[in-house]
Amino acid sequence: MTIRLRALGLAALLAAAAHPAAAQSGPRRPALPAGADSNDARAWYRLGISRLGDDPRAAADAFRWASRLDPHWADPLYARRAALLMANRTVLLGYYSGSETAWRQAQPADSLAAHALEMDPFLNRNLEGELARAFLNAAIERDTRGGETRDQLTEVERAHLSALILANQTPATRAWLAAADGDLDEALRFYDQAIHDARYKSDLYADKGRVLALRGDLAGALSALQSAVAARAAEQNRRLVFLYQSKAQYQATVAALHERLGHADSARAAYGAALQEDLSFAYAHAHLAALSLAAGDTAGALGEFALAVQIRPGDPGLRVDAATILAATGHVEEAVEHLKKAVELDPAYADPYVMLGRLHDASSLTADALRYYEAFLAHAARTNPQYEWAQQRIAQLRAAP
Fold it and tell me: Which of 75, 322, 338, 346 has its Cβ near the most Cβ atoms within 10 Å?
């Protein structure tokens, strides 16, 4: 199939790619260590982790660049949420002490967690320990002299204050802190106590389910998440909840557990239930598309990806996923449109360029293919699996008559 592209449109697209700031304003870029690859999302993620303790705002910027470079990766979204919470001590203290005012203030950060968990319900929440330490440090500063003496406290004094503060926390907070420290048995003990005492139990069941999943007890995790769904139904509209603890998210986590257990039909039903709760849950459609592909239903996968993109048109990762299936099933023109839109949405994202290069290459549009391959090399990390192949293909095309 011949790909019909206006030359002017292609030139404008590649010009925008060469000057990403002109196409989309980005976050401030902290300085990477010498020798680091500025196109590598993992280099930015490592920088964010290294800056999280001393400069969480700079860490948040680094995590945002990691998301720009790899929109399929949920971890930087979750990490940026942690950095934004740590950047505001007052909000951090209120957030984990049950202040509804702090919860409202933290909604922009929580929306990042909601997006990350929508992409990956079993996201490794490996920064909870950092958040726990930041919370305890903020509490110590509050309980001393307004933070003036934090660095003057001895380790013994800090340990004593930490123990006093910890003893005054609710079972739910102690469960969270134990899980953050990796003490899963202690976390489960406190979650059981918190569930017994709490009026509203859904989020506690859900958190318990995630701890059980970390322990490898998928059947127990499934039971806990199903209890979370049932409890949330009873609590509906009766309380303020974190954005990432919606009933739809719980249903999607149930679906993901069914997927891991090999229960394809139950997974489909649970993803459908998540969509009934929240029609904007785009990644439920993406997960349903994957289930359709596994069952050999290509048409169903195409339909689910179309719905996902319709719900979240500004997500370049979903655009690339849709384009991959479209191209594989012969819908090349539609695939190209999705890929061009992905470049427009995020010129720093490398994958659309190499796919556009391959599609133009397959149609013998060599000049256009070369431009896209070169744009890919300009934006891709040197560790990208297709980096060396693109270099070789460019050399082959330039050497051909």
Answer: 322
